[in-house]
Amino acid sequence: MTELELFERMNAERLSTFRDFSRIGFYAMGTVNEIMFRAVSRAAAEKFKLDVFNWLAHFEATFSSFIDTSLVGRINREAGGDPVEINADAEELFALCDWFHWHTRGLFDPTSGPLLDLWDYHHPRKALPSRNEVASARSKVGWDKVERGKGYVRLAEEGMRIDLGGIGKEYAVDRLVGMAADAGINDIMVSLGRDIRVSGSPPEGDVWRLGLEHPDRPSQCWTGVAASNVSLCCSGDYQRYLEIDGQRYSHIIDPTTGYPAAGGCRAAWVLAKSCVQAGILSTCMCMLGHDKGMKLIESTTGAEGCIWTTVGIYQSGRFTNYVLHESEVTQ
Q: Is pTM beyond 0.90 here?
């Protein structure tokens, strides 16, 4: 789809109101999204909606690996060939990739595209890939093989492929909350594919209350958290997975092994200041399991986490400070 088509699809949705909040639900970046916010007037709300949709349409048209004409599409086509010119937004996004690749010791790797293609849960295989297939795909993975300089990026080997699925929506959430602040909007919830960031207060006042889905009953919450000016992201295998010969495999692929995450994790939740940080850490927790996963959280300033495994539920020291009492959880 073109940037204009992406914008028009979103802009077909109308603002609704709840108390003095505006709400918009829309489809973008392959998922269902929701934004709630308090603006000073209906005109200000409509303007913010248009600004959001314009930014999101440009972002998706630029960074989606599913759009051939996108910047990421061009980078992938030129793998092993010429460098591709990039703009300031791409510089910022790739700089974040650098940092989180280092902080997670390679568990976050935006060049995991060949492995994601191999283990594509959208089109399940009838048999497990062979060791040779996994090794071949994994040989094309490695953020350290990405050549970057001022204003350009190049994939060093043919067959490499960038996929920003592990950071793109989260980055967009953070940017939209920043846009809201610039527009004088302080009370807002942005949920892109349920990667969430909240600021200020909800319509009922006080702090935002966010539910944590039960991995065995996704339509229900097993608990919730109360917070403001924070991001909440969840990763897990309870909704997205593939099944081969009756065995269930996570959609989360560990780039350091080439195989689906096998840490016994059903779901992991992370609270952090930025949505990028919360999203990447929750995914890494699923790869690491509860012991190493909790150590990663405890080594990250400003992040708190909870992990639901096959043997129990584990929470970081201050995560419990945010947890709602049972009577406050809406099922």
A: yes
